[in-house]
Amino acid sequence: MSYDYKQIHYNPDLGREPYAVKGYKDDGYPSTSVCAGMTRVDFLDSYASEAEAIAAHPELAQDGEVSRGHALLDADLKDVSHISDGDDMENYEIECLRREGNL
Description:
This protein is of the alpha+beta class.
């Protein structure tokens, strides 16, 4: 997948490889998905050092700046308040299929 951007996250809970790299894709889900319109965030890999992560993903370092992320910055990307509570899920799915021209 081609990502709009990548970020490196430091997370000491990952043990010996605390530097995780994530890829972000704006509107990264199909329109029939309940996540349609949301930014897709994929865990790509983890590394023992920031230097190893940058070597594997050179696009993390642009013009001397390293693209760093933090769990708090990802919080808005994980909002699922738009997803139906289940009572109306069948109607939602039918509407998505209609919009796609598959119904």
